[in-house]
Amino acid sequence: MHLKTKELILCALFIALVTVGTFIKIPVGTDVYTLQFLFTLLAGLLLGPRLGAIAVGTYVVMGLVGIPVFASGGGPGYIAQPTFGYLLGFIVQAWVNGTLVRKAKEISFRSLMEANLAGMAVVYLFGMVWFYVVSNHIINAPISLWAVVWYCGILQVIPDAILCVGAAMIGLRGYKAGIWLDAKR
Length: 185
Hints:
Strand order of the largest sheet: 1-2
Structural class: mainly alpha
Largest sheet: 2 strands, antiparallel
Radius of gyration: 16 Å
Order of helices and strands: HEEHHHHHH
CATH class: Mainly Alpha
Mean pLDDT: 94
Helix content: 55-70%
Distance between the termini: 25 Å
Number of helices: 7
């Protein structure tokens, strides 16, 4: 695969944004949210499916080789963390929302939101399945399927939906400004 200079620079920018977003912590009650998901959504929207997935995938690989870009550091042991599925989900999410918005009949707030919500569903699927399997079968911290759905899904929907709205608004501005890669005009 051969990337152009502009593509390399934009991928690097999104790797940096996802990393910074991981460390921007917003406390809400007893939970803490980050902007990591916002930037993975924007990677798919602005870079397109291929480059968005490459950027987010590179971020994940960087963390797995030991660069402390994840919320709790990095290293190959992160694979055994119950939350690692969300990181895998972010890669697929960037590809999914980037693909869906590129196939939309028109670029609008609605088409961006639909793409982002589909991407959010992908992240939840990967995240909750991984959380359940690792908790119950690898680290011996049993948790019921309902508890996983409640804590890892239902309680996260509103904050993540807000990030989907923000990404749709920023993505629409980016489209109108002509900064999308592989965008249909």
